Structure formats: C-alpha cells, structure tokens
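> call design_seq(struct)
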C-alpha cells in the first residue's frame, strides 16, 4: 500500500505541477507557529514532495507547501484523511481521502509557494524542445490561471462528478498553449 500513498502524493504534485501565510501567524513577522506534531508532519510531507520522480518540488517550495498545508488544514484533519499516520509521517499503508476543503487548502498552499505556470513551462520544455518556454509560460498564465489549476486539483482529488470536464479544460489549455508556443 506504500505505492498507493506515494501515488496519491504524486498525483497531488503532478496535477499541481504536471501560501506560506498563516492563520497562526503572530502578526509581527508572518511566521507560522506549529506544534511539535505539526513540525513532524511538515518534515515528512516536505520529504515526500521533494522525492517525486518527475516534477518534484525544490526544498524551499516543499517546505513552504508543507508548512502552509499543515497550518491551514491541521494535523487532526490530515490524520483523519489518512495522509498522515499517528506518528506524524506520510501514511504508507492506505490511500488518503480528501474533501473539497482539504484539497482546496492544499491547492492554495501549493499555488502560494510555486509559480505553477512557470514550473509547468520549464518542465515541459525539457521534454518538448519544439516549444519556447517563455511563450508557453505566458500562454499558460492566460489560459490556465491559478483558479483553473485549483479547480483541476480539487476535482481530481475529490473524484468530483465534473472532474473529467475540468480536466479537459486544462488539457485544452495546455494543447492550445503548446501550439501557440512553437519555436
């Protein structure tokens, strides 16, 4: 079952890639205050986010996303969603289940820490040398804004009834942008 959780985390990153602000901020420097258990969960998620085989986050991005996600959702909810186990580690024995609120908060944390369109353009240009990464990024910012990325992530993670339609919107935007970004 380790593969199930790893796959779920991969999907989180893949859909999100293909803010670090906090409600617990002390108001002075914007830093997040986490409990010891939350810090353990953040470290475990950070490790998982950087170990993705394709499109893994940088250490800085992973720490930002993990901190924001744990802070916004809370350790109890992450445990009940089966993403984090009782030891504060990424659960490797079962697949997590996300509701729209939890998935939306993940998307917010991710999009607050990662320039999605830039990352997608850069990663795509590495494997498709026929596209101009700068043109592709500019097109993605227009055709696949963060609001659509968030909708795609939430629909995918919650198995929403309109998941296929929303996914098609993202696929069309990518295809249109690839066509418009040829060198």
């Amino acid at each position: 079952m380790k593969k199930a959780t790893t796959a779920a985390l991969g999907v989180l990153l893949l859909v999100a890639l293909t803010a670090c602000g906090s409600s617990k901020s002390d108001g002075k420097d914007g830093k997040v205050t986490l409990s010891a258990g939350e810090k353990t969960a953040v470290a475990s998620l950070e490790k998982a986010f950087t170990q993705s085989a394709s499109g893994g986050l940088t250490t800085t991005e992973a720490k930002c996303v993990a901190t924001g996600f744990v802070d916004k959702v809370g350790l109890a909810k992450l445990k009940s969603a089966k993403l984090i186990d009782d030891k504060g580690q990424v659960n490797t024995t079962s697949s997590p289940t996300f509701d729209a609120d939890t998935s939306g908060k993940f998307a917010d944390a991710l999009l607050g820490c990662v320039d999605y369109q830039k990352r997608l353009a850069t990663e795509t240009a590495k494997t498709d040398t026929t596209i101009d990464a700068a043109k592709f990024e500019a097109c993605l910012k227009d055709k696949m804004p963060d609001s659509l990325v968030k909708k795609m992530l939430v629909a995918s993670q919650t198995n929403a009834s309109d998941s296929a339609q929303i996914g098609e919107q993202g696929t069309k935007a990518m295809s249109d942008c690839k066509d418009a970004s040829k060198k």
